[in-house]
Write a structure and sequence with these properties.
The protein is mostly helical and 324 residues long. Among the domains are: 107 residues, no CATH class; 98 residues, Arc Repressor Mutant, subunit A, CATH 1.10.10. It has 14 helices and 8 strands. The radius of gyration is 20 Å and the shape is globular. 38% of the residues are buried.
């Protein structure tokens, strides 16, 4: 995970393409066969079977999720995380829902390469919203808190891509009249709806009714796999190794006084009760890793002598899953 800072931000580098189901697997396989493939656009277009902009988008998402390290002309390689998730002993075809939750965490906690996504899940708290107010709130954040200027087209592109990744456009009803060219548009929307990798997490949903809009409230989410929160907590503690404990409120909401790190409770859109319920499963599943204490009236989560490593947790999870 990468901390939000004014000096290192990125908006719109996905070429308006949300992460698709096959891209991580296809990109990893291509890199294993041709490590310099992303330095050779023409070859990449042929080998990957996509256009030039999609090649750039695929490379971007491989980097944002942390599964690939790119060395420009020297080529690219899978990171240990990429080998774990996409290797034969992991979840190469992303069939395990826990893997999708972890990919979501990897994107939403990457403030340096996916600043708009980080902002939405960690700083934007409106449970219901429309695109205009979403864009205005991001613009205010960029200008006032980051102290930088970004083109409205870039911010609009970032938010549009986020919504298409988590809440793809619904198909027009069969009984509704289609505008000119509507058939092609419906086909494109259908492809996006089927290929939106993280839509099934239900973190952003269309608001029913004629007014449209979206909703992204905090909920209990009892279906959140404990390994996803365990992974996020391990990364959060590893980000500040000198801290023996973190306040539960900070893990839920982040630190409003600093630009700060991602907050697992915010990224997973968990209510307080929901966070504590999943945390109880984490502490039960990985005993001896964490302990809850009240210190000077502050409810805190302490990591014990040997805190878990996020990558090791994931390796063990896939190993146990394969044995079942």
């Amino acid at each position: 995970m990468l901390k939000l800072s004014r000096e290192r931000t990125a908006f719109g580098r996905h070429e308006t393409f949300p992460l698709r189901h096959a891209w991580l697997t296809k990109g990893a396989e291509a890199i294993l066969a041709y490590p310099t493939i992303f330095s050779e656009p023409e070859r990449a277009m042929v080998e990957l079977g996509v256009g030039r902009n999609m090649v750039s988008a695929m490379q971007y998402w491989l980097q944002v999720t942390g599964v690939v390290a790119v060395f420009h002309d020297a080529g690219a390689r899978l990171t240990p995380l990429g080998e774990t998730i996409l290797g034969d002993a992991g979840d190469p075809y992303l069939e395990d829902e826990a893997t999708l939750w972890i990919i979501h965490w990897l994107i939403a906690s990457n403030a340096e390469l996916a600043t708009g996504f980080f902002w939405f899940f960690n700083r934007f708290a409106m449970p219901r919203f429309g695109e205009p107010e979403l864009r205005q709130t991001l613009t205010d954040f960029v200008e006032r808190e980051l102290g930088i200027t970004r083109a409205q087209t870039t911010l609009k592109s970032d938010l549009s891509t986020l919504l298409r990744l988590y809440a793809p456009a619904l198909l027009r009803g069969a009984g509704e009249p289609a505008a000119k060219g509507g058939g092609a548009r419906r086909q494109r929307l259908g492809e996006e709806q089927l290929d939106a990798l993280l839509a099934g997490l239900r973190l952003i949903e269309h608001e029913p009714g004629p007014g449209g809009g979206y909703r992204s409230p905090r909920r209990a989410r009892p279906y959140l796999p404990p390994i996803a929160l365990a992974f996020a907590l391990a990364e959060r503690f590893a980000a500040e190794p000198e801290m023996p404990a973190l306040p539960i409120r900070q893990l839920l909401y982040g630190d409003p006084n600093t630009l700060g790190w991602a907050a697992p409770g915010a990224v997973f859109r968990l209510s307080e009760d929901g966070f504590m319920a999943v945390l109880a499963h984490v502490m039960e599943g990985w005993p001896g890793c964490y302990e809850l204490r009240d210190t000077a009236g502050v409810h805190q989560l302490y990591r014990l002598a040997e805190p878990p490593d996020a990558l090791r947790l994931l390796v063990e999870y896939y190993r146990r899953d394969a044995a079942r």
